[in-house]
Amino acid sequence: MIQPLEVKSAILLVEKALKEGADLVLLPEKWTKNIEDVPLVEFQKLAKRYTAYILPGAFEDGVSVITPIIDDSGNLKGIAKKIHLFNEEKLRLIPGNEAVLFTYRGIRFGILICYDIDFPEVARELFSKGVEIILVPSKVRGNGLDIWNEFLRIRVLENRIGIVNANVYSPPDFPGRSVAIIPEQRQDGIVIPKVVGELGSEEGYMIVDIDPLKYMYLRGDRLKEYVKFTVKEL
Questions:
Q1: CA pair distance 206, 5, nearest whole angstrom
Q2: CN hydrolase domain spans which residues (predicted)?
Q3: pLDDT tens for each residue of 14-53
Q4: Contact 3, 167 (CB under 8 A)
Q5: φ, ψ for residue 89 (rounded to 5)?
């Protein structure tokens, strides 16, 4: 999880995380004002040098809100598009119509961009396709962060999957506080959303080690309980 203030520090923070052994790096939504400011070439070079994936955030490209996916060879593997546009985005952008997943080092990752996490059916569909960790770049204001974290926690509980969220740090309105959450079963059998990493309100980064095998049985049990149904009107 990376919380940069500007382009120069973003490059430095990404490389620091990679040097410390990060396999996948996630940046926030709209941490730069324009997609032209995103140092994609530099990120591609870093991804190749350290054989890691980099998701450089989510940005408006003039048509949609997109998240580029840079693979461990430095190539653009693909893009994910924001499915649920937020507020004024709806007036000038086109929403995506598909959720994106990919497999890296044996782990199934899905991508949901900010407001997408508010809609449980998207996370549930990714879960049904075997996704183990959902990556969420976001731009959430401080006054909405408490309810935002509730959405993250609930998606973890609903689907028994991990979530890694990189949120914008741009004071005073956007406080960062990026977070990683996984499901964990307590000794009494109750499954809880456990925070395994959280940044504060400052520029920085954090490496979080998530092993989906630790909650694989929880996912398996929940998957068995997942049934298709229809609605009957009387």
A1: 15
A2: 10-166
A3: 999 999 999 999 999 999 988 889 999 999 999 999 999 9
A4: yes
A5: -60, -30
% residues pLDDT > 90 (the chain): 94
Residue whose token pair is 């400011």: 37
Closest residue by Cα to residue 208 from 217, 195, 193: 195
State the amino acid at position 168 in one-letter form: V
Question: Which ranges of the chain would DSSP assign to H, the alpha helix?
Answer: 7-19, 40-49, 120-128, 145-159, 216-225
Q: Which amino acid is at 123?
A: A
How far out from the chain centre does Cα 188 lie?
30
What pLDDT was estimated at residue 228? 85
The amino acid sitting at 211 is: D
Cα 23 to Cα 54: distance, rounded to the nearest angstrom: 9
- Our measurement of the distance from residue 67's CA atom to the centroid of its chain's CA atoms, rounded to an integer in Å, reads 10
138 within 8 A of 154, measured Cβ to Cβ: no
Q: What is the DSSP letter of 74?
A: S
- Give the tens place of pLDDT for each residue, 108-155: 999 999 999 999 999 999 999 999 999 999 999 999 999 999 999 999
Calpha distance 56→37 (Å, rounded): 11
